[in-house]
Amino acid sequence: MKMLLTGARVIDPGQKIDAIMDVMLADGKICQTGVDLLKSVKSKDSAKTKVIDLSGMVLTPGLIDMHTHLREPGQEYKETVASGAKAAVAGGFTSIACMPNTDPINDNRSITEFIKRKALEADMANVYPIGAISKDSAGIKLAEFWDMKEAGAIAFSDDGKPVMDAALMRHAMEYAWSLSLPVISHCEDTNLSAGGQMNEGYYSTILGLRGIPVIAEEAMIARDILIAEFTKTSVHIAHVSTEGSVRLIRAAKKRGLKITAETAPHYFTLTDEALQTYNTSLKVNPPLRSAADIAAINEGLADGTLDAIVTDHAPHARTDKELEFEYAANGISGLETSLGLSLRLVREGVLTLPELIAKMSLNPARILNLPKGNLETGADADITVIDLQLPWTVDVHTFYSKGKNSPFQGWEMQGKAILTIVGGEIKYADPRLNL
Ligand code: NCD
Ligand code: ZN
Predict the structure, then answer these.
(1) Would you say the CB of residue 284 lies under 6 angstroms from ligand 1?
(2) Count of domains in the chain?
(3) Which residues are catalytic?
């Protein structure tokens, strides 16, 4: 079955395309892009081609979230591979990379294979498992990198926890480099962050909650940059939240080091001021920071210091969140609000739309070495169609994710993914499209 998507504004940052065009899909691949493709269809095999009019819409390479937490195996009440993959396509993501902090930790071949199998059964978004850096993410011994790579792991991370032992991190970067896979570092010095509940500053003082200083993140980023430079390898910095972090990464890139970095929508949307409600849906690690940090993150996004926007989708159950602030779990359910929040950056003039799309598709694909994130002829037919104008209200009860933990409940949004195609098949279509 062929599919012809007509009349959309096609944005493909990899080919520097931003124009009204038609896109033809066949056998799970992009087989042609151009103008007036409808004519050729009419003359030939119109009955065999599904034509979808997308006038007024934006068509992009399928969005890629390189930092998602699925909770299977072990915490299926929070999220399964299937529920997370469904939430992904509803949020416009055709591919997600899932962190290894499941229970047990994804630190070996059999769990990597298990996640891949569950993803195949779910048949929604592509799911790429990230293997643990250390056994049980305990920070003591390296996990079986080669074995996990063989089983399908596309990167290594102990995300959720930092690798406190610098020698272990050095070996992780060297070994991963020899396998041509990236290390993704959750940067947090736990001696500095211990017991912290929120950003250390004015609001932590008046709220009486123990603070997490910005240097807990920045000291570890500085260390990882030094290790990457010394070992002549690379590192990808996860969920950047502070001004100092942006400055460190910018300087490292300027010196030609192979450092890449990401941030998440909550870090450019909310500050620690919001915590005055003690709403535990605002509790996340790293914590929400200050207005100055948001300004620096916006600058980092605009000048390319921050390569990718990720969800850090961290679904939790009510029983994990409806607790005293101190006991509540860290994390925000992000797959279904990420695009809506990120589109605000375009309206605010922080990024152009093609720049935003690059940070949510092409750049993550490049960092993870995935053959994705572009609309070239012959590429996988992974496509996201966005209605930039569509107004909608966040309602966690309509999330496909089991994680209803969102501080954006009730927020008015503008712009949404209305059609998500994975491998040439429609995996999500907004009812308003009447497909
Ligand atoms: C993540 C989780 O719940 O797994 N939580 C979070 O607040 N970000 C862990 C992590 O990414 O550090
Ligand atoms: Zn993390």
Answers:
(1) yes
(2) 2
(3) 312
Which ligand has the shortest distance to the CA of 237? Answer: 2
Residue 314, ligand 1, Cβ within 6 A: yes
- pLDDT tens digits for range 220-241: 999 999 999 999 999 999 999 9
Distance 383 CA to ligand 1 centre (A): 28
Regarding the beta carbon of 186 and ligand 1, being less than 6 Å apart is answered yes
In short, whether 105's Cβ falls inside 6 Å of ligand 1 is no
Residue 134 Cα to ligand 2 middle (Å): 15
Task: Determine the Cα–Cα distance for residues 296 and 250; give it in Å rounded to an integer.
Answer: 11
Where are the alpha helices (H) located in 51-189, listed in sequence order?
A: 81-90, 109-122, 145-151, 166-178
Q: Are residues 226 and 80 in the same domain?
A: yes
Q: What tokens does 311 get?
A: 């969800």
The number of helix segments (H) and strand segments (E) in the chain equals 15, 17
pLDDT in tens, 340-360: 999 999 999 999 999 999 999
**Most ligand 1 atoms within 8 A of CB, residue of 102, 130, 159, 267 to mutate:** 159
Which atom of ligand 1 sits closest to the CA of residue 101? 4
Same domain, 78 and 198: yes
Q: Which domain holds residue 88?
A: 62-367
Q: Please tell me whether residues 136 and 278 are part of one structural domain.
A: yes
Same domain? For 283 and 394 the reply is: no
Of residues 269, 239, 264, 267, the one with CA closest to residue 413: 269
Residue 397, burial from CB neighbour count under 10 angstroms (0-12, 13-18, 19+): exposed
Q: What distance in angstroms lies between residue 286's CA and the mean position of ligand 1's atoms?
A: 8
> Which of 40-54, 93-107, 207-221, 283-297 comes out lowest in average pLDDT?
40-54
pLDDT, residue 44, reads 62
